[in-house]
């Protein structure tokens, strides 16, 4: 029988509603870290995360709390990533818990991510404790938010805890509520081992480490563990808990949260959602809910300097060590040379990886516009997965093309319903549902092509609603669609890295706008450069970058040599992010231009 004094819980919240701040307060209050040791935002440990103010990699921490009933409880707080790209990871860390604090900002109220997370928590049968945060703000409206929680989620919020993670109000009440409301774990210590992996991390000394919740049985050093999805076996070298620093313990048993190290070389062998069992006494079946993480968004990454190719590969491998959901394979582009096609969970994941490559690995990269995976049926009846528009088969060999679609939920003040509907119409959305969350806020549900979301949906949503809308989406399958590929010719030469796939109804417009945009981006050279966009053999738009006036330098020859040097240096710096394609120099912006043309 698992210990009655364990409580496993998560905090679920919309981005910026105060999840990390509250976690810090709980850690501080229970004394896991002294105030001085307490660096700001302990759970968001990566620099990038801190900078962007969002939680990407989930982690766990064990808190020891002496409750008012005089007993000491072991509280395991499991952190969840706060972004739509990582929904599956969120669902697995919630599966490791019995309860969740639902943190809602007292000014903002319920947002799309709040709802999405609540649904995940309900699917996992968690006890939900509503916490209304930021009540210290003058504009806080706790009663309104309380009403929203009741109306939208159907949760009794009459006893919602009013808190301020910033000031520290409500922290003790939250801890007490966790102890009294969240059920203790159920599992049996003596049953065959079942441990749920909710995260994993690569450590240079210990190998790939699994972060687990033991559901049944026990695991200790020396256990031969078996991954139930692959059947692979490893000998356990260490088990431990997070204090939040990793601390080795004798064993982990039913109900507990901790880590398992087994000199595993690759994080691919510690997949989130997988079940670890004991090879000598295996569980009959794995825990439910495992699925392989699948990349949804792809782009090409090319080194600006050809010589950096090997370094780029090594860096991708290093990042992959810690992030099994990042996939990549070598790709050759006629225009850009040797690089990699990389797959990501979503747009944010993509941006993070790109930024880390440039910042931590000091690489200078050309990135092509992101694409989704199209399912193309050719005339032989084969279905091809196309993750690079340049690889789309010629039109006469295509039978059908299907594109991924998502079910998107948008929460917005009622005043903006019109603009949102208009936007979704433009983005080829299908209306599914609409209801009132409160008197003044509306939830809209649409089916939208994922490619339209990748295109510029977030930016449009933000600008058309003054930032008041929030969005959540999940993959809803594939739909056949009338899609065409647009190619771009520069100086008569096809630049494969600029090709993109678009709905026929928009092809003319986007082809036209792209060449206009490129005309502004591609610097003048000594000769005239025609830019054309074409579908098949048909030119749909053309612009020209006029030849450079020869006197750019001549102008500076007034004796002022330093000015001339400055100009040359400026040109050199500008060149860093350029790629020579044929005899035309193309700056990085050009490859992203397709995303910024509406
Ligand atoms: P993600 O990590 O992106 O999920 O965000 P989060 O929900 O963890 O939010 P975070 O804790 O980073 O807080 C967001 C902002 O709100 C920060 O600037 C906090 O200082 C502020 N904040 C958090 N709690 C409170 C509060 O109780 N009162 C006030 N006034 N500000 C708060």
Automatic annotation (TrEMBL):
Protein keywords: Cell membrane, Elongation factor, GTP-binding, Hydrolase, Membrane, Nucleotide-binding, Protein biosynthesis
**UniProt catalytic activity:** GTP + H2O = GDP + phosphate + H(+)
Q: Which SUPFAM superfamilies match?
A: EF-G C-terminal domain-like, P-loop containing nucleoside triphosphate hydrolases, Translation proteins
A molecular function (GO) held by this record is: GTPase activity
Q: Is Nucleotide-binding one of the keywords?
A: yes
Q: How does it sit in the membrane?
A: Peripheral membrane protein
Pfam families the UniProt entry points to: EFG_C (PF00679), GTP_EFTU (PF00009), GTP_EFTU_D2 (PF03144), LepA_C (PF06421)
Its main subcellular localisation, reduced to a broad class, is membrane
Which InterPro entries does this UniProt record tie to the protein?
EF-4, EFG_III/V, EFG_V-like, EFTu-like_2, G_TR_CS, LepA_C_sf, LepA_CTD, LepA_IV
Q: Which positions are annotated as binding GTP?
A: 16-21, 133-136
GO biological process entries: positive regulation of translation
Q: What is its EC number?
A: 3.6.5.n1
The record's subcellular location field reads: Cell membrane
Indicate yes or no for the key word Transcription.
no
The segment(s) forming the Tr-type G domain are 4-186
One cellular component term (GO) for this entry is: plasma membrane
The entry assigns this protein to a family as follows: Belongs to the TRAFAC class translation factor GTPase superfamily. Classic translation factor GTPase family. LepA subfamily. Belongs to the GTP-binding elongation factor family. LepA subfamily.
Q: What does this protein do?
A: Required for accurate and efficient protein synthesis under certain stress conditions. May act as a fidelity factor of the translation reaction, by catalyzing a one-codon backward translocation of tRNAs on improperly translocated ribosomes. Back-translocation proceeds from a post-translocation (POST) complex to a pre-translocation (PRE) complex, thus giving elongation factor G a second chance to translocate the tRNAs correctly. Binds to ribosomes in a GTP-dependent manner.
* Name under which the protein is recorded: Elongation factor 4
Species this chain originates from: Desulfosporosinus acididurans
| Gene behind the chain | lepA
């Amino acid at each position: 029988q698992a210990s009655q004094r364990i409580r496993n819980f998560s905090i679920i919240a919309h981005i910026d509603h105060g999840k990390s701040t509250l976690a810090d307060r709980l850690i501080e209050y229970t004394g896991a870290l002294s105030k001085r040791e307490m660096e700001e935002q302990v759970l968001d440990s990566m620099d990038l995360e801190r900078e962007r103010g969002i939680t990407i990699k989930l982690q766990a921490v064990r808190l020891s709390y002496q409750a008012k009933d005089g007993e000491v409880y072991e509280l395991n707080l499991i952190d969840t990533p706060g972004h739509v790209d990582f929904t599956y990871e969120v669902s697995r860390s919630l599966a490791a818990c019995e309860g969740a604090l639902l943190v809602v900002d007292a000014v903002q109220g319920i947002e799309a991510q709040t709802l999405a997370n609540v649904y995940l928590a309900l699917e996992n049968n968690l006890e939900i404790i509503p916490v209304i945060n930021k009540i210290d703000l003058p504009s806080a409206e706790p009663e309104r938010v309380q009403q929203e929680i009741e109306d939208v989620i159907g949760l009794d919020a009459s006893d919602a805890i009013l808190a301020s993670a910033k000031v520290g109000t409500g922290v003790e009440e939250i801890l007490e509520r966790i102890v009294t409301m969240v059920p203790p774990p159920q599992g049996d210590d003596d049953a065959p081992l079942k441990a749920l992996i909710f995260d994993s991390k690569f450590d240079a000394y210990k190998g790939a480490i699994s972060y687990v919740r033991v559901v049944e049985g026990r695991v200790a050093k020396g256990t031969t563990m078996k991954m139930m999805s692959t059947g692979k076996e490893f000998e356990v070298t260490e088990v431990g808990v997070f204090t939040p620093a990793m601390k080795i313990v004798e064993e982990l048993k039913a109900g507990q949260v901790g880590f398992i190290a087994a000199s595993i070389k690759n994080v691919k062998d510690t997949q989130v959602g997988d079940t670890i069992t004991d090879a000598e006494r295996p569980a009959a079946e794995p825990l439910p809910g495992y699925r392989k993480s699948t990349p949804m968004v792809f782009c090409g990454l090319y080194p600006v300097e050809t010589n950096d190719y090997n370094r780029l590969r090594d860096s991708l491998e290093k990042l992959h060590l810690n992030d099994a959901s990042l996939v990549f394979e070598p790709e050759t582009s006629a225009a850009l040379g040797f690089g990699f096609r990389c797959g990501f969970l979503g747009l944010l994941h993509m941006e993070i990886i790109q930024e880390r490559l440039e910042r931590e690995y000091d690489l200078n990269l050309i990135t092509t516009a992101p694409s989704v995976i199209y399912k193309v049926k050719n005339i032989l009846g084969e279905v091809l997965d196309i993750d690079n528009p340049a690889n789309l088969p010629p039109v006469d060999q295509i039978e059908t093309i299907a594109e991924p679609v998502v079910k998107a939920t948008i929460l917005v003040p009622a005043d903006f319903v019109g603009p949102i509907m208009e936007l979704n119409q433009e983005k080829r959305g299908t209306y599914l549902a609409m209801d009132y969350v409160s008197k003044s806020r509306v939830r809209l549900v649409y089916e939208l092509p994922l490619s339209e979301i990748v295109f510029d949906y977030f930016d449009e949503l933000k600008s058309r609603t003054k930032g008041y809308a929030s969005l959540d989406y999940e993959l809803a399958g594939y739909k056949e669609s009338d899609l065409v590929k647009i190619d771009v010719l520069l100086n008569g030469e096809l630049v494969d890295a600029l090709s993109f796939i678009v709905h026929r109804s928009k092809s003319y417009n986007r082809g036209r706008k792209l060449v206009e945009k490129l005309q502004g981006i591609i610097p003048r050279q000594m000769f005239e450069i025609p830019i054309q966009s074409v579908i098949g053999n048909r030119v749909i738009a053309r612009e020209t970058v006029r030849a450079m006036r020869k006197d750019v330098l001549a102008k500076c020859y007034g004796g002022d040599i330093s000015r001339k040097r400055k100009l040359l240096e400026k040109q050199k710096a500008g060149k860093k992010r350029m790629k020579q394609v044929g005899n035309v120099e193309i700056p990085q912006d050009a490859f992203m231009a397709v995303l910024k043309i509406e």
